[in-house]
## 1
Amino acid sequence: MEEKINAFLENLQTVKNYSRNTLAAYHNDLNQFLNFATSEQAYLVNWVRVDKSLLLSFILHLKEREYTPASVSRKVAVLKSFFHFLVARGDVNADPTATLDSPRFQKALPHVLSEIQVTQLLAAPQGDAIKQLRDRAMLELLYATGLRVTELLSIDLPDVNVDTQTVHRPGRGGKRRVIPINDRANDALIAYIENARAKFKPREDEPAVFLNLKGARLTRQGVWLILRDYCARAGIEAKVTPHTLRHSFAAHAITRGEGLENIQRVMGHSSIATTQIYTRLAPELPEKNKTE
């Protein structure tokens, strides 16, 4: 039975190019079920003998041990994917998960900062030292565009056009995503690029906009540390990550009445449903934008 699990994981790695972390999580979930199943049925030696009743017992076992609905739902999804694979290969004749429902759970709303907190955070990098100029530009751009931190750090000089106030990012289907930036972010970028970037002493062939003190491209960990420092200076006690600024951008844009389709395009969401989540953070939003 373990050989089937290994074959499934190998398929996910070679055909679907799943990450190492995802494969490890799938492996743990399937092994957990296998250990439970063999403890319930000592003579279980083939996946053909797994039925819906055994699967339901596993779900009850998880609930009794106070696994969250989200965790149980994930494990059920992994089992469904696994048995679909077995059926496709002809290893089992019927899929016992076909009518198995996942536990319903309400996805937690993303955490956002208030507009006052954002104002305090953006004002935290004081002074004209090169680090403050860089950090001000970085924070202004994160909030003005809703960029993911990986997108922010992959920005190269040719991606920025301060004349048209836009940043270009890869989009779906090979198309470039053109993201407008406001005056504050644009001014902060100009000040950093013209007055500070070269003082980080990058190599001549280093295209990255945001650099660390060694003149190389800034890292994710570096951004997290920078953000944590400025949150402390701004007196923001809540846990804030770069993604918090992305969420805050979307929620505040909706509150201002911007259209969902435009926000979806800027953020690079593949589905409008993902963008619609932010309407739940804006109860006073006009009905037009809630249903757009």
## 2
Amino acid sequence: MDIRKILFKTSSIDVEKALPDALVLCGKDGKIQWVNDVAAEIFETSKMHLLTSNISDFIENPMNLISNSVILHKPVITKFIGKEIYFDMTVKEIDEGFVLDFRDAVQLPALNTTDDEEINNVNREKNKFLLKLANDLKSPIQSIVGFSLAMADGLGGKMSEQQEKYIRIINKNSSDLMYFIAKLLELSQTEASLKEAECKTFDILGLVNSVVRYNEQLYKGKDVRISIRQEADLKKTISSDEEILKNILQDILEVILKSVDMGEIVINISNPDEELISSKGLTPAQYVMISLSSSALLLSENDLECMFDPYKIVESSNRKNVLRAIVLASVKNMVQALNGIVWVESKILKNTSFNIIIPSN
């Protein structure tokens, strides 16, 4: 592979200045395909080892940083795993994947506030970019879902038993992908801070009941019971953003219902005491607490790790739960938009409880 020919095709990397830098060519999946000697030196390993590795083995959150550099056409600060060493990384997207150019190593104890603000701005712009492509992402999948369902119902003519089996598999998988894309876009919207809370007065119990009714199809056919409880002295109306709170409860209830096939789900609405409010770092005010508990959903410490952080969980052994982390990351962002807090508690051999506290006026 002639890396010079590839580099000469790029516009964001100065070839003559880049060659003395650490250069890595990786595929779209992050698998390293070519490195120069300098890269082996800064990664402190052999070229042979690098060529059997993924860029995520050496860099924290690499694909997100690569995406940011490509979109903004400028270097991003990159941290090596297990080292307090930072590099400027310039990325050029090519047919083969990405050319990564590392230069200007700096040892820092942490990124300063300016860097944090810049990263947040980059992430917001990336999320806005993704949201603009929402229809391009959803429309093809919607077509597959719709046409596969129509074919399964006989619209395209009689099919054999085997053909019907395959078309229903296509429909299920495309429906799952559609749900994944919808939740990923929801996360992008909450991270981009495109919606501000609009407070109005509404009936909190009525809202919870409407969310339960909306989800009847999810637990229909399962041995699942949902009960709603409230404190006797609970104020019936609160002032908050009804739509955001509805989305929060909807997402949490979906997470539970997709994980259990039996047992009781209890939704408890209460007034949190001052000690709990203080322990969660909230300022003194009037709050309402909503807890969704399931006796059938039992989580381990490994499950609780990165529960609200899809960017970390995708790099961990718990990657199978990345969709749940995406949904709960959106929940966390929406709760923060309401100036509240959310957390999960799992009691061994008892239950798992998703708790939110938000201001009630």
